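anyone seen this seq b4? input:
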Amino acid sequence: MDDRQSRTSPRSPSGPSFTSPVFPSPRGSYEPPKPAATSTEDLDLLSRVKGLYRLLDLHSENATDTLANEITISRESLKNFLDTIRPGSYKSLTKIDLHALDLLSINAIGIYGSKGEMARFLHEVGSVDDEVDKLMRGESIRERRLLVSHGTAGTIQPHLRSGMYALIPPNTQHSDGSFNPHAAVYIIYWPEETTWDDDAIGTVRKNRVTFMHYLTRLTDQVRALISPEHSSTLTWKYVENKSDDDLDNRFFKFEVAKTNEQEEDVAIREGFKVSHPAISTHSATLSFSDGTSRSSSLDPKLLYSETRQAFADSRYIPAQTHEETIDLKYSFHHLRTILRRHGTIYLAETVDYRGLEILLEDGALRDRVPELYRKYNDAIRKVETSQRTRETDETRQALSEVATNHTKLRSSVREYVTSRVAKIFPILDFDDESIDLAPEQSLDAPANEYLHNLRALHPAVDDAANNALNDKYNSLRVIKASQFKSMKDRFFILRSVLKKRGQMPESERKEAIATLISGSDASAWGHFNPRTYWTTLTSEWGSANQDSGTWYRTGQDEDDPAFVSQLAHLAYEDQAYAPFANEVCNLARASLLENITSVTDSLVRKIESAQEKAIKEESRRLSTARGSKEIEALRAEYRRLFQEALIANSVHPPLVITSVTKSNPCSQLVDVRGYYQNQTEAKVQHRLWALEIPEHDMLRLQEDQKHQPKPRVLSQPVSTCSFPLTWNLRHIQIFNNRSRKHVLLVIDLTDSVGIWLFPLLDGPSFDKPTKSIPNMKNRRYTLACDEQRRLLAIVISDYDKCICQLFAIDESFSNIQSRGSPFNLLPWYQDGIPKITATAFFAGTEELCLLEENGRVRVFSFLAQSFKPGTIRLNPGVCHIQASPDGTTLVAVEQHQHSRRLRVFHRASFGHKDAGITTALPDEFNSATSFTLTSIGDRRNAFLMALSPSLQCVHSVAVDIYRQETRTEYQFRAKAGKTRPEVPVPTVHNALIDCLSEAWSCYPVVAAIQREPFSGNTRRPPSITFVSEDPNRPFERYFKQMIRNFEQRSKKPTAKRLDKIVIEAAQFEDLEWGFPVSSAYKAGEWLAELLCLIPIHIALARDDRFVPLKDGILDPALERQLLGTEVVGIIDAITIGWYESIFSSYMATKPVKVVSCMGEQNVGKSYSLNHLTDSSFAGSSGRAIEGVWLSVCPTKDVLVVALNFEGLHSVERSAQEDMLLVLFNTALSNLVLFQNNFAINREMANMFTSFQSSTHLFDPASNPKLFKSLLAIVINDVVDKDKNEIVTEFSSKLSQIVSTEQADNFITVLHDSQLTIIPWNNIRSREFYTQFSELSLHLFEQETTHATAGEFLITLKTLMAQLRAQDWGSINRTAIKHRAVTLTNILTSALATGHATAEIDPTVEDLKNLDNQEPIIVMDSKALFYVGKEPLEIERALSAHLRSWRRDAARHSVQELQAYLKAMATLRLARAQVWLDANTERFPADNADIRGLRRLFDDASATLLANI
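predicted toks r here
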């Protein structure tokens, strides 16, 4: 589903739906569960075979005219296989860990052959029990019986689907059931029922060849298990080719002959019969919405179509209620689409105001309630404005009080600082001028109460005061007065002198103290130079000379508080120092008072600043708290009003939304969760079942018109539509036009008629019919449609009018227009208004047959605008009337007594033979309830089909119509005699051996570009062992002769590889099945080889649009989801299946070369690419390729990507679709092969129309790494004598194109002026294949534009996304933007966890280089950081860090924790930086997106650091 996950089955919408089973059902369609008896899963024997895993599955494709098959990878079974051999190696189809698989090896052995013998093999190795063995052995018998009795392709018994399987025999594994790498892994090709029949139909032969090609590429040792029944039919006389290469067998003779003249006649003969359980009547009681009910029988019916065969069954779907959940990330556009889809929205209590505002803004719910939304915003703004005003007033008032209290604060601060100084200098008294020198005295004033309260009130003020005082603390300990410093120096000099002199007389000591301290003796002190003190004093007092710096340093080392205290004590003990001490203290006090004033002023400024900041913060906090409370109440009130408005006047169940979040405000994705009750009204469901004609029947009908085909019903309905009970389905008709099948659907609505026209496989959009006819309630009308002229006629005959309106359908089947005014038919009816009961066109004409209630049939000509003269009259009881598909007759089915008969009227003699030609119909037609006349192959091969619900089958008779012609008719036909190559020796089941030669013929034995061989030396010579009951039969001689005939016939290079195949024969019992000798492969290499063998469908061109596919599948749900999505979003939605793992991981670092092939249909594009690049593209005589397919050839040095394109200039594609394919091709490729047939494609003007029209879109100058391909024009089948002429012809016409277009010519714009013309040899020559080697040299000589496979993958997706969006801007710029968005989505996870987890992808992966998937190996921590701004989340993250740091974290300091966190964060940021650089280094650093990404990275890094 596109936007939700259903808890039950998907619902039916209120309107009808019409869907295709090939693709997921469109929104709201209802698919009833299939009956258990016919469930595909129940019929599949895979789950009952131990150790068997389906690798490749074979699916029938319903989109073509024949039963084509597609080989696909079986995802779930492949996952089980890989989880068995290496658990965890398979995450999804796009994420397979091939490197991990390379750590183990597998011993692969191929198995193919008869089903019975392979069932025996499975039983031998313990994989199946007796019951399953019997089912497998008896499968073919049942299938043949069912095919004959029911004419259907499917079986109703358990069976194993055809495909390729891997078998891990259970009896060879370890005792615990784990994989044993030494045991054999058997690669099994399980065939279809007729695979080994030599006359198998084309699709079966094609499947056989493809699977055998895969089998021989994946295994060196192959065992062919041949049953006794098949062995007995082998023919050993291998006919050698003649020396002239069987030229005689290549001549087929035809002639143009006259057909026998004949009279008008009709004959019927036995037709086909198809049974199906859907052909049955369903009885039901229909319950209407108004409460009424009635019983009804719902009958199946045949569909109208001149060239297709189909029927529809009907069943009643009662009203149902489903609870469906939504839990996805939506883009804004998608979210709005979801909300618009639901009229009623209910918000659960878990949706907060943020979720509501996301829905209003991003979900555009505001458009539903614009007035209420305006009032809500006004109310919020009013509250916010009021709070800001109040906050401003409160802040202003508080700051005014601060200014008023400035004097009080200053006084308090001065007192506080003075008290701190008094504690430092306790000997000083700051209360008065006197100094008490008693040492026990101190000054310690109590803290001021105002400052104390202020610091308690504002912690920030306290912090500011403490920090300021700490900064000024040292300055408060220093006395800066110069006189104080001088006296301090003199004091320490004196002390040193006295200490040096030792004992001296008291009087002399006092004199020295007085003289030195007073400073009155100039001879003693000189000019007060401290460094001369010592010399002066010692010369006077006779002291010995010492180092002059010793005493000086002693004084400098003593700090001022200690000096003052020491001096005070000295003066107390020695009164001789008292005068000096008093002077020193007075100087100190005066200096400190000046310092106190300075510190006080500084501290007051800082306190007031902190106080102001604290006041503003507190005001803001209080204002925010008050505002939040008011806004919360306001939001609650308006949430109630919004809720009432969103559910008002609605009777529909609401969409209940439980959660709406965004990962960050800048995210473009919204995570929405919720559910809704989906009440669907009762409906009638119609399923369309198509009958398909096998290819061999179509071929036989071309040769023999009387061949009886055997159509079969496809296993699923091609479309399903559900209508309300009030609608009435009137008409369904299938148009089998050349390009696509379309459906015309006519429905009676309530008061009008709705006509829908749509592609069969796409289904209609029931929002609006293609054409609506109003005022048709209770009107009586009939309608008819002509497919060839695309005309629709509606005849209304009731009340007072009888009119006929003609409508024309345009060629694109997209529009229906009225053709002229309605025709008034009343003038031709003289007896009043006729009751027209049925109408029918003569096919391919504008003549309409009208059947009246009385049985009269008249023909109205729209060209003549009148009735033709002839009339016929039918008997009562006409069951059906219709013209033959070739337009020659009108056919009626009549009820005649108890049987039914066919009446035929030739158009040429209409009205002249009133009785017509009558013939009885078989008894089976008596119970039929629905008829239609159709054709198979040629329109002349008419079949009347009848549907009988009671018999649950469709019967038919072939209607041979003979007409009388006035001219001789000529017919081109095979001439009698040999019309096809003669087979000298008929064979029955030689395909069991010849299948290998068939594979060599279709696919290369040795390609020009060869795949890188498996590594290691564990390979063994290739061998084929034929296992049969008689090993002595000449298998080896037959095989060797087959090789020689192949080499002579095909002229292909083989490099002697086929000669190296060892041919052996053995009985089943003689072989080792548990641990046989075989080649061993690295499992990753082996799986990569398998993946690269399977081409994948990557894009379509449809409806003038380029449509990328997701994993090879067209998903309509994805297409709807991408509507309106930006290119970056489209890039992320595109995946290329199994090749994702090759490009993005396993071979991500290898450079890529791209070679592509284009051309018209049937020029050998697939064959050429296969032999050039060793690819496996399917080829056929019709359209084998649709859109673009991709394959990979891994070589030793590069990956060669091969792109195969559907044929250009076909009627199935418009010119714009061709142009889009050309643009995609030329942009991406290094070598473009444009292949042409020499004998046909000589018109150059038309040949390159698509190329030239592509030149004006993308600008190569803006995409320097694209549009660099060499255009190689390949002309097929050119013999030597013509090559110069053809080159001259092509070059001359190309020169004319260049001359006309000048700088805009496609060679310059799309191919960088590179072109080569290659006349290619005939396929029957050896040179045909050697030229591929020369072509490969051109490829490898081209400039490498894709440096790595990872880079190529991004370029590929970007180009596809831009083509889909029709964005013609720079692809390189888009790739940069995509990379920036991708990294942005991962950035938060990368910083927080060190892993890559994107918003849209919750998968946890290592940080990698996205271009080559190499991991970012840089030292990192395991810490989990929070990169956001939510306080609670920050606290949680810090708590987690603390718990993970140390068990005894409480014993360590905060600084240690900060250092630890910073170290961890530094490691994370360094690794994230390396990751970011690795993923952006190939892009210009000045690109706006890259710059924005780096800014985002810097901001996120700063947030991370701030949070720790």
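The chain has 39 helices and 57 strands. Residues 1222 and 1251 are 6 Å apart (CA to CA). kinda curious what u guys think
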